[in-house]
Every structure is written in C-alpha cells, then in structure tokens.
Amino acid sequence: MAVDVHQHLWTPSFLEALRARTRPPVLDGWTLVLEGETPFEVDPADHDLDSRLKRNAGLELALVSLSSPLGIEHLPPAEAWPLVDAYHEGARALPAPFGAWAAAPVADPDPVRLAATLDQGFAGLQLPATAVQDDAGLRRAAPLLDVLEERGLPLFVHPGAAAGGAAGSEPVWWAAVVPYVQQMHAAWYAFQAFGRPRHPRLRVCFALLAGLAPLHSERQINRGGHGRGLVDPDLFVETSSYGPRAVDAVIRELGIDVVVNGSDQPYAEAPSPDLGDAARHAITVVNPHRLLTRKESQS
C-alpha cells in the first residue's frame, strides 16, 4: 500500500497550545495570526480526524509534521517547546495509518531531547528550510543531524515562515510559489555543499521537489560546480503541489529512485505522475520505504 510522507493535521493538544499564546503565532478561535501576514481563517474541516481517516483509507502510512511556516522552530526555546511538545503529544495519539515526523527548536538545539523523542517512534526529524539553507544554519543544526545519523533516521526539510512583506499586498499563492520555493532551492544546494561533507550517511527528503532545485544542475556545472550525472542516493525529493510535468522533469535529472509521494494534505492532493504502474509503485511504495527504513547504527 502507498505511503504519503507529507501531511499536516492539527490535533486538539496543538490547537490548545496555539490558542494559549498571546502573540504570533497564535490561533484566535480559528483565525491564525502570524507575524507580518494577514490573519488567515483556518477551515476546521481541514483538521478533522474522521474526515482525514476516510481520505487516507488507501494508505499504509501517512506522516504528519509540524507546520513549519508558523515559525515555531525559530522561536526562543521557552516559547517553542510548549508548542512542539503539544504537537508531539497529539501526533503520538493519532491512530493508524498515521505516523509523524518529530520537531525541534533550532535557536538552541537539544540533541538529548530529540533522541528521547525519536525513541518514542517518530519517523525522523523535520526542520524548516530556513534553518538549513546556508552553512551557518547547518552548523547550528549539526547536533540534531548527528542524532539522526547515529540512529539511521531521515531528515525532512519543509518550507519555513515566508519572508514578511506588507501584510495583504501579495496574492494568495505568493508564499507557496515564491519564498517557499526559494527556501527549498537554497536548502538543497546548502546541504549538497556543506551538509553532505559533515553528514555523509544522513538520508534527507526535501519537500516540494526541493523547489525544482535539481533542474538547475546544468547552470551549477557551467558556473564551476561538479558532479553532473552523479546522483546522491540518500537525497530524496517529495512531490507535493506539483504535477506530471515537474515530476517527470525531476526524474529525468535524478532518476526515479529518489522521488517519493507527498501530498501536503489538507492543502493539496498527491499528484499522479502518469508514468505507468511501475513508476507509481516506485514513488508511492518502494522509495518511501527506502527513505524511512531505519538503518543499523552508523556511528
């Protein structure tokens, strides 16, 4: 059965923690208030467990993750941890087919606390792209990445908070198409340049096809980069919010073995790559299992 590595579901404990705050990110009833953004009306049906279970009836596993665009991981630890703990509490209580990515604040990384969380059965760790999009960020996150590498568990890189413009000035699609894609593009190349040398055995999955960053390899080579035709088998991309043309283009660059199924529910549906049954099986079953299967200790 198929695996979906990218969903979001706000559980009661997480909703309660967001509503307990007095400054962004804060949830006022069902109105989400973020720093520098127009208040957003959340649809309660998007986070209804019974409805999601029906939508996931054909899945073997659906991995939920913290909504990194809220900016929680970048909050001071005293503010971040109550939200992260509430997310973990709710995620652990979800029934099958749900699993979850762990989360962690990045302002003051705590590898001991992360290790304890992973030992509770989380699939790996999600970090916002804003935390790992340059050398300095990867250095700060290194203690957390070391824990993953030691346990043979993967990292999931998800867009973080959008850079603030004048609230309400951008069209509704702006954040998803501009800053999110830019973040993922930067994170892909930052890990290639700085992260991989430090973490040679870490498996990493980049959301939304890494912002199509792999398609820029020709320009990278023309400007002094190396490795054309060499695919890192432990760098994966997931398919959320794209369609057959983009998925096909990335497969032509990276091959199919590193492409995994992701939907970004409730905000989007998993794309159908329309590449035949064998490709569908690889993307939805074989490749996700290779991403998520715990390896023996790599220390």
Structure overview:
With 299 residues, the chain is α/β, with parallel strands linked by helices. It has ten helices and eleven strands. A five-stranded parallel beta sheet has the order 7-8-9-10-11. Strands 1-5-6 form a three-stranded parallel beta sheet. A three-stranded antiparallel beta sheet has the order 2-3-4. The radius of gyration is 18 Å and the shape is globular. The model has no long low-confidence stretch (mean pLDDT 93).
SSE blueprint and pairings:
Elements: E1 2-7, H1 12-19, E2 26-28, E3 31-33, E4 40-41, H2 49-55, E5 59-64, H3 77-92, E6 98-100, H4 111-118, E7 125-128, H5 135-151, E8 155-158, H6 174-177, H7 179-198, E9 204-206, H8 217-222, E10 235-238, H9 244-254, E11 259-260, H10 277-292
Name the descriptors:
299 residues, alpha/beta, 5-stranded parallel sheet, 11 strands, 38% helix
**First-last Cα distance:** 32 Å
Q: Count every helix, treating DSSP H or I runs of 4 or more residues as helices.
A: 10
Structural class: alpha/beta
Query: What is the percentage of strand-forming residues?
Result: 5-15%
Instruction: Bin the helical content.
Output: 25-40%
Q: What is the H/E order? A: EHEEEHEHEHEHEHHEHEHEH
Strand adjacency order, main sheet? 7-8-9-10-11
Main sheet characteristics = 5 strands, parallel
The poorly predicted ranges are none
Number of strands: 11
